Amino acid sequence: MPELRQDPVVKRWVIISTERNRRPNDFTDHNNHLPDPKVDPLSEGNEHLTPTEIYAVRNPGSQANKPGWRVRVVPNKYPVLRVEGSLDKEGEGMYDRMNGIGAHEVVVENPRPDLQLEDLPLDHVAAIVETYRTRMTDLLRDLRFRYVLVFKNFGWGAGATLSHPHSQIIATPVTPSVVKQKLVGAQAYFEQKERNIFVDVLKQELKDSRRIVYQNAAFVCFCPYASRFPFELCIMPRRQRADFHKIEPNEVSQLADILKIALLKLRLGLNQPQYNFLIHTAPVRHAKKDYWTTLEEDFCWHIEITPRLTQIAGFEVGTGFYVNPVPPEDAAQFLKDVEV
Amino acid sequence: MPELRQDPVVKRWVIISTERNRRPNDFTDHNNHLPDPKVDPLSEGNEHLTPTEIYAVRNPGSQANKPGWRVRVVPNKYPVLRVEGSLDKEGEGMYDRMNGIGAHEVVVENPRPDLQLEDLPLDHVAAIVETYRTRMTDLLRDLRFRYVLVFKNFGWGAGATLSHPHSQIIATPVTPSVVKQKLVGAQAYFEQKERNIFVDVLKQELKDSRRIVYQNAAFVCFCPYASRFPFELCIMPRRQRADFHKIEPNEVSQLADILKIALLKLRLGLNQPQYNFLIHTAPVRHAKKDYWTTLEEDFCWHIEITPRLTQIAGFEVGTGFYVNPVPPEDAAQFLKDVEV
Predict the structure, then answer these.
(1) CB contact under 8 A, A325 and B10
(2) Which of A105, A168, A197, A316 to mutate: most B Cβ within 10 Å?
(3) Helix (H, G, I), strand (E, B) or coil at A107
(4) Roughly what angle, to the nearest 10 degrees, separates helices B328-337 and B249-270?
(5) 20 to 30 Å CA-CA from A268: which of A72, A221, B37, B298?
(6) Where are the domains of chain A?
């Protein structure tokens, strides 16, 4: 059973993932490799190589766990959290722990190993976004979970261990520490000004315009003012809403459009860099916490896309103090000029 | 002039390092390489290839900027912060910025490019520790600076761009966000219990003993309960003190001993992994801030050593939610058994 442990000083929860337990000698080969694509377990026709599917966008008449799908969601074979069991929160001396209960799903973005998300037609990307929404809505019904993370690691350096294009969903029984910092920061701003900080950021970015990369009817893509990484991108909805899973149908197609264009610009402009994206959404409101009282008004969901062009030095992780060699204004201008 | 910008939501400062500005095309080759060791600018005899030295531990009779040194501190040729100028704090619409004023120094740990810190005799490692102390004490006198970071990146994947064994010192005009989280967490604990959380952690680790790797008269090295990374290590002094630079002479030699042994255990046990270490010390108390009122009592300096055996996935940076595949009890047992 994996375990969740809390750092007593900064209150950061860590997953001690015994399911993925590796012996010390497993680390002495530092060259991890992606698995052989000939036995790609996520390709169409290899459905028997994955656990039973949870959800799929399928052609009419096709059967579950058989070919004929466009997007397919399966449990992660090596989950960082286990779905069965109870949390059993307890102290261990001065420390706090709980069982590593959660969900860990793989969203197979398309049946072919060689087509990336940004290669797919718009309606296919929209089906992926709609899949995120559907799975998040379902997972949030589980009273054990506090937060649902939707993210993508592209490239080994960005944390991917399978080459077949996929994203991941992790439902957790705790709110991740950076999410909590965002909630606390947004609430402090709202209390002071009675305005939503994300709405104000978007207004200022649109007015200033130097950091805007692309916009459509429902979304704006820009390089954040205090970008940690070169060519970091933020996608913000024009309509403020705390929860990603309350996205409306017309927004789904607009999000597909802006996501595809943002990823195409990164690929063409920066030679297919490794990257991560992450949907920042509000936590569940099963329990009442102080920083949730004004959440509908003070928070706004958004997507962070972080290309991995530079190494993350240890002192950046240890201090939260990032050095970014590319001013976001230059990054935005460069990406704006990349024709897709 | 580099620039410091603050994220408006989480209040995290980022250095936009124009001194290191790279054009977008510089990122399209993802294979960064270490410089040619034949022209190692940090070797003895190549003193003319570095900026003028700031400090050195020298053989009697040797001249500054000439051979005859054991440890040498020079300004970083490509500093992330500039030492000349004033902060000029200002708003930019809703955002906050200031000039990137600070210091960025390189501590050349020994004259030879092929000897790592852990290869050096104990008195030489002690001279390096003493150099950290001396430089930190000096930099803290500058009223523009709030914090002094002492750290080491070993290996390209850990952020190193020079192969010659070296550590780095960065003095910053702001307190890094993770440091502030530690201060706030430690203060909250102290207010509740009137006890120092680091002292309590050390007591519990010594009592439990399963996560202890090594200890000597003045220091204890253990794998933290909520380790983010496999084989992560913490070195904590037995004597609680907020500031690293107030370390006493007998502690310097004990710290040299435990640092050398910790690094040797990592190298021998894990095939010379890339790693970072970072000294967590208290910020300067020029200005009065709420969380500094009890700082002498509630904080304790310590060292974090983080081997880089796994990739840091984007969602871990984006959420602060780490997945560690090796329980710290197993990591500690493994490292304890490595004979050095």
Answers:
(1) no
(2) A316
(3) strand
(4) 100
(5) A72
(6) 3-21+33-337
As assigned by CATH, the class of the B3-18+35-337 domain is: alpha beta
| Residue B237 bridge partners (DSSP) | B219
Tokens 């992560």 sit on residue? B232
Q: Please report which helix (H) or strand (E) contains residue B168, including its range.
A: strand B166-172
The single residue listed with the structure tokens 């990739």 is B311
CB B137 within 8 A of CB B245: yes
- What the block records as the tokens of B249 is 């002479």
Residues A95-152 have pLDDT tens digits of 999 999 999 999 999 999 999 999 999 999 999 999 999 999 999 999 889 999 999 9
> Under an 8 A CB cutoff, do A30 and B314 touch?
no
Q: Can you tell me the distance from the alpha carbon of A202 to that of B168, in angstroms, rounded to the nearest whole number?
A: 37
All residues at 6 or more sequence positions from B109 whose CB lies less than 8 Å from its CB, including other chains: B71, B117, B120, B128, B165, B166, B167
What ipTM score was computed for the predicted complex, to two decimals?
A: 0.88
Tokens of B47: 């003193």
Residue B112 CA to its chain's centroid (Å): 22
Q: How many CB atoms lie within 10 A of CB B127?
A: 18
The class (CATH top level) of A3-21+33-337 is alpha beta
Check CB contact under 8 Å for B172 and A12: no
